[in-house]
What we know:
By secondary structure, this protein is an alpha/beta fold. It has helices at residues 16-30, 71-85, 96-99, 108-116, 138-158, 168-177, 220-234, 249-259, 272-281, 298-305, 339-345, 354-366; strands at residues 3-7, 35-42, 49-55, 58-66, 89-94, 120-125, 162-165, 182-183, 206-211, 238-243, 263-268, 284-287, 310-312, 331-333.
Amino acid sequence: xxxxxxxxxVEIGKDGVGxxxxxxxxxxxxxGHPCMIVSLMEKGNERKIExxxxxxxxxxxxxxxxxxxxxxxxxxxxEKSIKLFNPDWISLQFVPFSFHDKGLSLNLAWSIKKLTDNxxxxxxxxxxxxxxxxxxxxKLRMWGLLQRIVIKGMLRELRPNVIxxxxxxxxxxxxxxxxxxxxxxxxxxxxxxxxxxxxxxxxNDLRFVVFGSIHHGAPVNEFAKELSNYAINRKIAAExxxxxxxxxxxxxxxxxxxxxxxxxQILGEQPIFTISKTLQNADxxxxxxxxxxxxxxxxxxxxxxxxxxxxxxxxxxxxxxFPKNYLPLGxxxxxxxxxxxxxxxxEISNVSxxxxxxxxxxxxxxxFN
Length: 369
């Protein structure tokens, strides 16, 4: 079975979905199924690039087409290589803003239809539309309404054989559009390194790790104060470790945590080996992604794959007709005056690994043989 993966960008380390696709394709190739990747809208490219990329020791063919040419022209260009490869399946990895600056690519469905050429089609929805939140401003809700119309039109036009997404919320939203989607659990983009490099913990001190972008509006003041009190009462040290590109909010978090008497360590961007060791040496991971979206967070998946329970310290975020108290497996929600209970009862979920996710995808494809 041959598969062509389509995505917006596949620039290494610069696009989360691109990194996801590369690891997924590598895992599929390991299971004996040839793959190629076509990135249809590379914003950093001035020309077409054909290259080999590597993931987890597996090389794969990649074609990268420049954003400036537009989706229609790039699909016409991609059609030649796809016909030559002659895949059994086309897998569209969908993010609205990958294919159009406003997330409103009106030509996407027609363009992708040219590539399918009676081949079976899979769509993986990594994101849906903006303005989903109940308190979203009017402009954002109207913008999201347009994106929703585009997505529904795309599904009606393309009629995919298999639809996947990564969160229970998105499964519910697609169902409301009239389409059945199965959840394909996310895997992380940080492979587990040799565990012999991990330090043996000799104290009861707690190490929390914040990995990746910190979202705005998180109750960091309340969290830092409560964690500080917890550490004082138990006569232990608590440390917050920041690793990766944490964004503008990192300085605020570091200042608040430091002022509360917590140890703070800022590692910044690091090679994959160092990130993996940092995650394995921590006790609890911190996510600032709203809790009902935690299932779409690659950093949450990476922390769980490294054996960490995850504490969500995030702003309130709810969606109409979806349970406000939804809590993904392995994720705890920070609430004031409950931190001790959460820390002592933190559990690690049975997370989806890359191998399990790729096998689930292949099994859904094989059901059509």
